[in-house]
Write a structure and sequence with these properties.
Layout (H helix, E strand, L loop, with lengths): L2 H12 L4 H13 L1 H6 L1 H5 L2 H5 L4 E10 L5 E12 L5 E7 L5 H17 L5 E7 L8 H15 L8 E4 L6 H15 L19 H18 L9 E5 L3 H12 L3 E6 L3 E4 L6 H10 L5 H6 L4 E4 L11 E4 L8 H9 L4 E3 L8 H9 L3 E3 L1 H4 L2 H15 L5 H25 L6 H19 L4
Parallel strand pairs: 3-4, 3-5, 6-7, 6-10, 10-11, 11-12
Antiparallel strand pairs: 1-2, 2-4, 7-8, 8-9
Helix pairs in contact: 1-2, 2-6, 2-18, 6-18, 7-8, 9-10, 9-16, 9-17, 13-14, 16-17, 17-18
Length: about 450
């Protein structure tokens, strides 16, 4: 049996009931076949076996008390996956669906994503099955304080630097940081996505969505095209979706749809982002409200229908496995030309195959949404240098990083005989640096 097949088989046997982790590992390792063929020394050093086994998995209890005095217990996770090229770095996700499989898939992806940014950051991920929806500010604070009361002993500015993800935005990072500072009595860059008044970076809030659009813009540019006049469908209506919409609109595109986990809104005249920001960022309400406030906009229950809306560019920005084979086929039939993944693993393996077969330019998450973590690393650089860069400075660096990632994955795909296959290109370009570092460190 070939090396990659053997490692995947063992991984599935050793980690049963982890379907998302299997899915991510399958996508990544299949893309790495040409690399391990070229480097037989990797198999001798069990490099892929070590690469797919986290360095450390931390599981912990998170007890907290709600406003009515009721005691709740959630599960807390931190997977410190790989520190070969730098301290562990990756977000915290608070969502009821969170389990070890999801955190491990996200952590594995994160290793390569962080490597692709060209910055010295390793891969990690964490979170909890806590559901922030419907909780008061006080309950969110209580939960974050309890979560950090355990997590603090495992993280540090040179060891592991978490950030936000689904359900963890500026408010949660603030509460987490406050508790860390209280326990450790140190004001350091141990979390990114911090508020501007306590060490955060300008443009971090916008970075993932903007970065996604910068990379898509570069892909368009390389084909003598642009966002101007294009119809775009964006899924989600959280941090990534909002700022992807903002930048796409600034570049002249018409974004016609968004969703949350209940349903989607369609606005043929183009989404009014100020209304979305008011509903989502200020009121923490549901996207359904948009149709009640904007004349001519429609609301549809359920999410899947969003992919039946004809568009030139699709930017899935909500969660994993949003686009399956059937949705991918409908998108292709309706003429989609570019798909840029803002969320992590939003397309199933079968969905990716449909896009690639149809010649759709498919920009995979680990490259396309790397702008968030790249800007987090810029926040770390500012923290340790006690510096504060302007919005324009950070934004320019972000754009430069996204353009470089695009060309690095494009070149890697060409070099390894799979031109235009950015899934393979991103995996290869990200892996090589990590592999070199792991080989240099010996068997650890
Ligand atoms: P937010 O919590 O800000 O927003 C998430 C959005 O996705 C919400 O609109 C949410 O709807 C929707 N959503 C979540 N789960 C589901 C579901 N099962 N079905 C349908 N809709 C769902 O998160 P972010 O915008 O930060 O993250 C979105 C994606 O981008 C994630 O995959 C994340 O890993 C990825 N990402 C984020 C980065 C960042 O910097 N924030 C960096 C890199 C990747 P509802 O409110 O109803 O739950």
């Amino acid at each position: 049996m070939q090396y990659v097949e053997r490692v995947l088989e063992e991984l599935k046997a050793k980690n049963p009931n982890e379907p998302e982790f299997h899915q991510a590992a399958t996508e990544i390792l299949n893309g790495l076949k040409p690399v391990v063929e070229k480097h037989p020394e990797y198999e001798k050093a069990a490099l892929l076996e070590r690469f797919t086994e986290p360095e450390r998995v931390i599981l912990f209890r998170v007890p907290w008390v709600d406003d009515n005095g009721k005691v709740h217990v959630n599960k807390g996770y931190r997977v410190q996956f790989n520190s070969a090229i730098g301290p562990y770095k990756g977000g915290l996700r608070f969502h009821p669906s969170v389990n070890l499989s999801i955190i491990k898939f996200l952590g594995l992806e994160q290793i390569l994503k962080n490597s692709l940014t060209g910055l010295p950051i390793g891969g990690g991920k964490g979170g909890s099955d806590f559901d922030p929806k419907g909780k008061t500010d006080n309950e969110i604070m209580k939960f974050c304080q309890s979560f950090m009361t355990e997590l603090y002993r495992h993280i540090g500015q040179d060891t592991d630097v978490p950030a936000g993800d689904i359900g963890v935005g500026g408010r949660e990072i603030g509460y987490l940081f406050g508790q860390y500072k209280r326990i450790r009595d140190e004001h350091v860059g141990v979390l990114t996505g911090r508020g501007l008044s306590y060490g955060g970076s300008l443009a971090r809030t916008e970075a993932t969505g903007y970065g996604l659009v910068y990379m898509t813009e570069e892909a368009l540019k390389c084909r003598n095209d642009s966002f101007r006049g294009k119809t775009v469908v964006v899924s989600g209506s959280g941090n990534v979706a909002i700022y992807a919409t903002e930048k796409a609109q600034q570049l002249g595109a018409k974004v016609v749809a968004l969703y949350d986990s209940n349903g989607y809104v369609y606005d043929k005249d183009g989404i009014k982002l100020d209304v979305v920001k008011q509903i989502k960022e200020v009121e923490r309400g549901r996207i359904k409200e948009y149709a009640a406030r904007v004349k001519g906009a429609e609301y549809h229950e359920g999410c899947k229908g969003i992919w039946t809306i004809p568009c030139d560019i699709a930017l899935p920005c909500a969660t994993q496995n949003e686009i399956d084979k059937e949705s991918a086929e409908i998108l292709v039939k309706n003429g989609v030309k570019y798909v840029g993944e803002g969320a992590n693993m939003p397309t199933t393996l079968e969905g990716i195959a449909v896009f690639q077969k149809a010649g759709v330019v498919f920009l995979p998450a680990k490259a396309a949404n790397a702008g968030g973590v790249a800007t987090s690393a810029l926040e770390m650089a500012q923290s340790s240098g006690r510096l504060f860069w302007s919005f324009e400075e950070v934004d320019a660096k972000l754009k430069n990083i996204m353009v470089n990632i695009y060309h690095n994955m494009d070149n890697a795909a060409k070099e390894y005989g799979c031109e235009g296959d950015y899934v393979a290109g991103a995996n290869i370009a990200g892996f090589i640096k990590v592999a070199n570092a792991m080989m240099a460190h010996g068997i650890v």
